[in-house]
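Run log // design_07
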């Protein structure tokens, strides 16, 4: 069904389509893991030049564990303040890394990854998880990606937590 939706050359249009598709799916389902799995699949399909898209969820105090994702197998646990995901979780702010090789504390799960964006999922002042997206291209992510993914993050938190 979604594979019949043509991708646009406009990232903004693709994000709008992604958000609309996700809203339709999430309204029909209450299960958090199901919704996160569908969200990771839609992100992976509608975003160009990425090689990993998924979620890490807060499992125990200050630890993220691997959630639903698309891409190669990944690290299973990441402490807050470690790597890009841990930093975004601890700071409760989106982190964009243009070149992961220049990020001192980068955790390499896929050697092809060259840039990364991580958007925290915040509920009542607590980090409940992060959206993590990697690209095989340097400088892949920008403020449009940040804005649109933060909107998706808000939808996820509002509907799933």
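design_07 sequence
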């Amino acid at each position: 069904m979604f594979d019949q939706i043509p991708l646009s050359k406009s990232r903004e249009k693709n994000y709008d389509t992604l958000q609309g598709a996700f809203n339709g799916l999430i309204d029909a389902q209450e299960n958090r893991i199901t919704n996160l799995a569908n969200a990771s699949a839609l992100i992976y399909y509608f975003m160009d030049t990425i090689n990993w898209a998924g979620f890490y969820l807060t499992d125990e105090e200050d630890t993220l564990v691997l959630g639903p994702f698309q891409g190669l197998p990944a690290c299973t646990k990441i402490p807050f303040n470690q790597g890009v995901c841990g930093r975004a979780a601890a700071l409760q702010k989106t982190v964009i890394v243009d070149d992961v090789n220049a990020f001192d504390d980068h955790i390499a799960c896929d050697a092809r990854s060259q840039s990364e964006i991580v958007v925290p999922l915040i509920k009542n002042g607590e980090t409940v998880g992060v959206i993590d997206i990697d690209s095989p291209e340097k400088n892949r992510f920008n403020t449009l990606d940040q804005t649109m993914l933060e909107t998706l993050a808000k939808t996820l938190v509002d509907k799933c937590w």
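The two ends are 27 Å apart (CA to CA).
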